[in-house]
Design brief:
Elements (H helix, E strand, L loop, with lengths): L14 H12 L6 E5 L3 H10 L3 E4 L3 H4 L11 H12 L6 E5 L9 H14 L3 E3 L7 H9 L4 E6 L5 H4 L9 H17 L3 E5 L3 H10 L4 E4 L7 E4 L1 H5 L16 H18 L13 H6 L16
Parallel strand pairs: 1-2, 1-8, 2-3, 3-4, 4-5, 5-6, 6-7, 7-8
Bound molecules: 3-methyl-2-oxobutanoic acid (KIV).
């Protein structure tokens, strides 16, 4: 691709590119897909430089960035704000914008407008939670030419209905429901589906049953790809992590130590040093009489 600059940029990944990877995986060709969440320009730059295939601007934004206890608090406007920040980096991975709770539950028209808002902010696809119940929303968004990623298993926007953050599909009927929902989403035209917190056997049945990639989180290794939350990978949070998270760094510890050292340096007078300071010329110092004895500044009496 010609950019007009000396650095040629690679073409960004598209939803069809992601679906095509399933065919390659089935032929025993290619590596599993990788999706990582990001919510702003710095995290998007890191995920892009690390070589992920997709950036999910997830509604986990609510919990890991905005300090809420669940994902139900974020709005389409919040998501647009953060998708925009990620998109301005112009990353190579496909940007998937999460449709927040209630943005696709009210009417087809509202659903399409909300999905379009994420696309106008820079997303190349949107994600929504739920199976057959959401086929109308999926169809409406696809009719507007916007690729849709599904999300089954533990769907955090349903925590009140599910009774909490729990592994799903542990019983025969719920496992069957997840497989049937996945088949329905794939037949409706979704380009990929996230499987969250389901037993590995259920993930395997889904992966075998559908022609689009399954992206697992807490769903074991029989998926076509994996996703984790950026803050969990980096150890930026001190919340209790579910067992499926592998933490690759302790950035919270590193950041706390670094900021703590700054606090210490300011208090002990070792920051800023002479090298970290802009100095006035001697000539100007003399003109302002800065080097003579301190002048008697009138200090108002205490009290
Ligand atoms: O919002 C999010 O981060 C997600 C992932 C957990 C898949 O939906």
């Amino acid at each position: 691709m010609t950019t007009g600059s000396s650095t040629a940029r690679m073409r960004p990944m598209s939803a069809p590119d992601i679906t095509a990877r399933k065919r390659a995986l089935r032929d025993g060709d290619g590596a599993p897909l990788v999706m990582v969440t990001a919510y702003d320009a710095p995290s998007a730059r890191v995920v892009d430089a690390a070589g992920a295939d997709m950036i999910l601007v997830g509604d986990s934004l609510a919990m890991v960035v905005l300090g809420y206890d669940d994902t139900l608090q974020v709005t389409t406007d919040d998501m647009v704000h953060h998708v925009g920040a990620v998109a301005r980096v112009r990353p190579r991975p496909l940007i998937v914008g999460d449709l927040p709770w209630l943005s696709y539950h009210v009417s087809r028209e509202e659903t399409v407008r909300n999905a379009a808002a994420l696309v106008r902010a820079g997303a190349g696809a949107v994600k929504l939670e739920g199976g057959r119940k959401r086929l109308d929303a999926v169809g409406a968004i696809l009719d507007a030419e916007i690729p849709v990623m599904g999300h089954l298993g533990l769907t955090p926007q349903s925590i009140h209905a599910l009774g909490g953050f729990r592994v799903q599909g542990k019983q025969l009927d719920s496992a069957r429901r997840i497989v049937d929902d996945a088949v329905a989403l794939a037949e409706a035209g979704c380009f990929a589906v996230v499987l969250e917190c389901v037993p590995d056997g259920v993930a395997r049945m889904v992966t075998d049953a559908i022609a689009i990639p399954t992206i697992g989180i807490g769903a074991g290794r029989h998926c076509d790809g994996q996703v984790l939350v950026y803050h969990d990978i980096l150890g930026l949070e001190d919340r209790n992590l579910p067992k499926f998270v592998r933490r690759y760094a302790d950035l919270r510890g590193i950041a706390t130590a670094a900021v703590g050292q700054f606090v210490e340096d300011v208090r002990s007078g070792t920051f800023p040093s002479s090298e970290e300071t802009y100095h006035m010329t001697d000539q100007m110092g003399e003109a302002f009489d800065l080097y003579s004895e301190p002048s008697a500044v009138a200090v108002p009496p205490a009290g």
